[in-house]
Amino acid sequence: MAEAYGRAVASTRRRSLAFLAVVAGLLVLSGLMAEVRPLVLADNIGNLTAYLGRILPHLTLADLRGDLAEWYWGLPKWAALLGETLLMAYLGTLLGGVGAFLLCFGAAANLARTRAGRFLTRRALEVLRTVPEIVFALLFVIAFGLGPMVGVLALALHTTGALGKLFSEVVENIDMRPVEGLTASGASRIQAIRFAVLPQVLSSFASYGLLRFEINVRGAGVMGFVGAGGIGQELLVAIRNFYDADVSAILLMIVATVMAIDLGTERLRHHLIGAEGAR
Fold first, then answer.
1. Which of 154, 151, 139, 157 is closest to 98 using CA atoms?
2. Is residue 48 domain-shared with residue 126, that is, in the same domain?
3. For residue 168, which of 139, 128, 134 has the smallest C-alpha distance?
4. CA-derived radius of gyration, the chain
5. Do residues 250 and 57 lie in contact, with contact meaning Cβ atoms separated by under 8 Å?
6. What does the pLDDT look like over 192-209, one tens digit per residue?
7. What are phi and psi of 176, to 5 degrees?
8. Together in a domain, 43 and 151
9. Residue 33 is part of which domain span?
10. pLDDT tens digit string along 85-124?
11. Are residues 199 and 120 in the same domain?
């Protein structure tokens, strides 16, 4: 037994070493292909720190209130644009969530009516979540012009693909006995989904929807880079015109907003997951 144990340990060690060697080889290959040069990074890291130093405001205790007022001179305008960004993220998440809800049942293996329909639905969801939001926004800017509607449409399409996959996986993990019981008693497909599927999945759907809203807030923040409205457009103007203090002020507003939303939605998600577990 000791010899067998030694051979098993040696075999496990060899597999582990082989795995680490493959990972290291892929790491080196990826670095070479991506032109990652640690020495160049080390030589130029000072440029980044110097830029960060330039965008930080000069605050003094003697006139802190005045310095803050000068730093946030555009607060009313920036707050309005930040509110526009939040509304873009909210509406994009809502529309995408509705689209994902309608498509997820056809993409779930246990509820899809036909294999062909399931295959087509899954491929459509893959296309929607594979194309980045910023690419959708560029296409819609060409088609519809500048404005926040472009950002909403881009976020909604990408959210449909992302949430559709997550929702379908939740549906595939439900207990099918209530569905089979309702179907055997003569219930229609919609009735079976309403009374047997939704009670099992709604809390998970809401949790994933909140998580996606967090992601979309960050995504909506850069939609303005392509003319899709929101605070990102003002941030791009500040960067291009070298308004260094404005860059840090706007970035701080975005970061603080995202942090507040993350903390709030995290508590909601934990509450929903806990409520589901209690049932």
1. 157
2. no
3. 128
4. 25
5. no
6. 999 999 999 998 899 899
7. -80, -10
8. no
9. 2-52
10. 999 999 999 999 999 999 999 999 998 889 999 999 999 9
11. yes
